[in-house]
């Protein structure tokens, strides 16, 4: 079987549908996965941070606290906290997200006064600026949620003076901090259902039946299927009578030249698995080290 990748269960079902619609034999194997995330941060009262982090970063965090204070005073709820906080921090947040989508999907208005190269550079600059803004908004959201937890503040209750000089946690890169700083660490182990998707190697020959959208969305998986199809096609070109497994294996590796570039495909280590798939699909008969083609 040819492994295409690992996915969350919901996404695995979507991937499998593309493959089955093309007529491929698909195997989904579910399992529980676990991975750690590590977070390093400075912890202390906000006034203590002024002498530790740089001025620009300190001012950013002051803005986050000011936005938090504002939405709490407006009666924010648990349900709309994220939306209200982000809008308070940047009223143009939704427009910026849409702008990102337009750049990615190439839906921007035509600017006839710019050359193709100038337009490309402008898009990259705009994209970088927008992503910086949205990253700060996301960082701010995470920061104030940690602040609420550290200061035992529940949304909807009276805050009193707890935001005047709150305890804060500011994320840092442990490789870039002063050795005299006290760095805290939080490790989160997340367990979640995952799924591996496999296809029968011979099914790869149906690659041309895949929806075009599959190639766009799952390009790496598409290439795995396409190159396996190339291996099988190469084997079929040399198929006749009987052949030894060693020779069969050699035919699983070849190079494709394209205007000076070379694509090397090497399936020699998987030759026996490929042979089993071909035998299962009635293409060959394997007996020991001898392979007999059935056509």
Major β-sheet annotation: 4 strands, antiparallel
Structural class: alpha+beta
Outline, from the CA principal axes?
elongated
Q: How large is the share of residues in beta strands?
A: 15-25%
**Count of beta strands:** 9
Strands of the widest sheet, in order across it, are 1-4-2-3
pLDDT under 50 segments (min length 5)? none
- Global mean pLDDT: 91
Number of DSSP helical runs:
10
| Terminal CA distance | 23 Å
Describe the protein in words.
The longest helix has 35 residues, at 116-150. It is built from ten helices and nine strands. The radius of gyration is 28 Å and the shape is elongated. It has helices spanning 9-21, 46-49, 55-73, 81-89, 93-104, 116-150, 212-217, 219-237, 245-250, 271-280, and strands at residues 2-8, 26-45, 167-171, 184-199, 242-244, 253-258, 261-266, 284-287, 290-293. The two termini are 23 Å apart. The mean pLDDT is 91. Helices cover 45% and strands 24% of the residues. It is α+β, with helices and mostly antiparallel strands. The strands form three sheets. The chain has a four-stranded antiparallel β-sheet. Among the domains are: 53-177, no CATH class; 238-295, no CATH class.
